[in-house]
Amino acid sequence: MPLISLTTDFGDLYPAAMKAVILRINPAVQIIDITHSIQQAGIREGAFALYSLVRYFPHGTVHIGVVDPGVGTSRRALAIKAGPEGEEQFFVGPDNGLLIPAARCLGEIKVYEITNPEIMLKSGISATFHGRDIFAPAGAYLSKGTPIEAVGPEISDFVSLDFENFGIDGSFLVGEVIFADNFGNVITNIPEEVVLKFSNFGSQIEINSRKVSFVQTYGFVGPKKPLALIGSHGFLEIAVNKGNASLQFGLKSGDQVAIKIV
After folding, report:
1. C-alpha span between 129 and 111 (Å, rounded)
2. pLDDT of 3 over the 80 cut
3. SS3 at position 63
């Protein structure tokens, strides 16, 4: 069964229009919602949501991502093929970096600009809803087996994005918050291998001048106690056992975080 995933900042109304368009083109497709709760215009947050889950999807999945503050402007529409031959997954969305980390984590990528009107909504293109009028139909056609080369020309000057803009300054690791989940867990862009070069589980670290335990999982500290760990996504995470680290530390997506190894 073909599979399409959706990741947007649309909330609870507009995704239904995308699904309706997809199902009219490919009634046999299965649609999975990754999330529609990305903060408005939260491109890095949406990119992380896709990045953290894409490797668990089967080959052939089409991922449609729409966090698109530039909708209707000169920004391009993209389709991407990613991964080894025979194991590819596909991505459809705006050229603002949203799709790139997830696609690159699968391996080699080929990027195409969507220009072919035959794979867009036939009733016309709204300047404000490319999710429905361009990305949904393009993704649906790809899920039916349309060759990606049919969407338009291959390009190399796409907008890039990565999560690696962290630094090491003496005993400090300096990074940023890339996601805060519904539990209030704060996920940074500092990867596991970097953290473990400086600290061991059971030790203390300072997060923005506040000492916390660096442990393997939430239950290793008492209720309402703060902690740091390596999350399932492979990055340093700040949490509060049975509490909300985002509120307690005052951290949100995009904020800088300084980790001192004590």
Report:
1. 22
2. yes
3. strand
